[in-house]
Task: inverse folding
């Protein structure tokens, strides 16, 4: 029996929660390193360390949250209370990141403030995102339709990132003319970050409230909640936690997904962090050009995500992932050949047309377009494996598998943040300096262009071994006597 497709409006309603995730997490990813190095004067390795530790904490709490949400029994369901509370705390803590009291100025004290507040942000994010991801697994049961749901989810993520990340250069960071007539880059003005924090926090709250309200009809209530609650008390929950960890990490198939996706996500994080400095120092983009190029990459990601359902229907999931890696690598290698290879000057123009900007944007779209396919694809693959485990055990498994996936995503992000700080130091980047050394600028660009394709090549070696296909999943469904949906 085939499951009915979810109405498109319900997919977009679910995706609204991902919009809040996008605004807060991409807001931090896009601008936190710039803010704490350029404005606060922290050394990049300390910023990277603070962000790494908080994100690593975020990752290791995910499995616990998976157990908690799977075994929650309230009148409002097992997912929605956490989505609501975690989402609101996330938004409030995000705003506080940019409003630093004068008493916390000074590198050591500032490190403690950044680390402590980031732990609050990341804990709230765990409480929000694990049940949110599990809710998506529960809402959508069909093999192809899972890819459609995750594609729309991450497509909306990028839509919000385009609006509040890509256009942030013009919305929040316009150039400022100094008293002597010189032009100051907008990312070097503290008040711009404060304005951005308030706007992004407010919009995120609205998206959380809309998501909770519009998806509440999918909350499991009544008898559906009685399954998998387990023994009450601390001992019972501790046993359940250990059981869930073993259940997920003993599943050999998840390691193919975790492996290929972890490597790919790590490459995305490194590129996304270092490219911001490449925009400013190597390419010397204006605010409008930053918006054009950065938004182009986000549009590429969104198009890749929204096209995932059609690609999976035509080529299945593993082949779709390989195609995505080829697309991404072509973009990164193209940037390397064109700019660091000397084919085009970073400031080249023809008849007033900014040729270098246009070429950079096109190749950037390729890189992020492939990435836009990979992220929702991996999420859909984990949803498949969660369903197989449910057939085998008869237990509620969505939360633990969502948590396992989220753990690897955040682990890759945390390592990317840590490595970025040391990359900036190793290439000779100086925090707060009016100008960077030419060698440092060239090495920043080289890292931006070549690191991604290298890591994607390693990721491919893992993905090519993934054995599950549409046909094999159908055979397993028959074997366990399960119905689709």
Result:
């Amino acid at each position: 029996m085939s499951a009915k497709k979810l109405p498109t409006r319900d997919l977009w309603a679910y995706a609204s929660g991902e919009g809040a995730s996008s605004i807060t997490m991409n807001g931090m990813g896009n601008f936190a390193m710039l803010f704490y190095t350029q404005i606060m004067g922290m050394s990049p390795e300390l910023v990277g360390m603070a962000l790494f530790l908080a994100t690593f904490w975020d990752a290791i709490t995910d499995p616990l949250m998976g157990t908690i949400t799977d075994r929650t029994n309230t009148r409002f369901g097992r997912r929605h209370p956490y989505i609501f509370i975690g989402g609101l705390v996330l938004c409030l803590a995000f705003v506080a990141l940019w409003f630093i009291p004068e008493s916390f100025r000074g590198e050591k004290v500032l490190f403690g403030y950044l680390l402590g507040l980031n732990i609050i942000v990341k804990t709230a994010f765990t409480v929000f995102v694990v049940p949110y991801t599990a809710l998506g697994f529960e809402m959508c049961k069909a093999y192809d339709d899972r890819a459609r749901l995750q594609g729309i989810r991450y497509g909306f993520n990028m839509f919000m990132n385009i609006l509040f990340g890509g256009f942030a250069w013009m919305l929040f960071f316009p150039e400022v003319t100094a008293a002597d007539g010189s032009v100051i880059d907008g990312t070097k003005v503290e008040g711009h970050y404060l304005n951005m924090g308030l706007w992004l926090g407010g919009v995120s709250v609205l998206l959380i409230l809309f998501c909770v309200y519009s998806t509440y009809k999918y909350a499991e209530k009544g008898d559906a909640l009685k399954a998998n609650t387990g023994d009450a008390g601390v001992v019972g929950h501790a046993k359940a936690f250990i059981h869930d960890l073993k259940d997920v990490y003993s599943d050999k198939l998840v390691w193919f997904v975790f492996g290929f996706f972890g490597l790919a996500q790590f490459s995305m994080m490194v590129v996304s962090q270092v490219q911001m400095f490449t925009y400013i120092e190597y390419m010397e983009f204006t605010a409008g050009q930053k918006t054009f190029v950065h938004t182009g990459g986000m549009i590429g990601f969104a198009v890749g995500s929204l096209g995932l359902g059609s690609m999976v229907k035509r080529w299945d999931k593993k082949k779709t992932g390989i195609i995505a890696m080829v697309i991404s690598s072509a973009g990164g290698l193209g940037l390397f050949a064109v700019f660091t290879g000397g084919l085009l000057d970073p400031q080249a123009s023809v008849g007033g047309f900014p040729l270098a900007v246009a070429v950079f944007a096109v190749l950037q779209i390729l890189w992020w377009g492939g990435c836009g396919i990979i992220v929702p694809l991996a999420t859909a693959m984990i949803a498949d494996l969660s369903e197989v485990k449910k057939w085998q055990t008869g237990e509620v498994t969505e939360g633990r598998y969502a948590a396992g996936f989220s753990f690897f995503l955040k682990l890759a992000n945390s390592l990317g943040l840590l490595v970025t700080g040391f990359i900036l130091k190793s290439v000779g980047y100086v925090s707060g300096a009016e100008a960077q050394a030419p060698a440092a600028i060239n090495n920043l660009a080289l890292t931006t262009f070549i690191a991604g394709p290298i890591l994607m090549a390693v990721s491919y070696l893992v993905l090519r071994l993934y054995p599950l296909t549409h046909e094999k999943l159908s055979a397993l469904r028959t074997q366990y006597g399960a119905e689709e949906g």
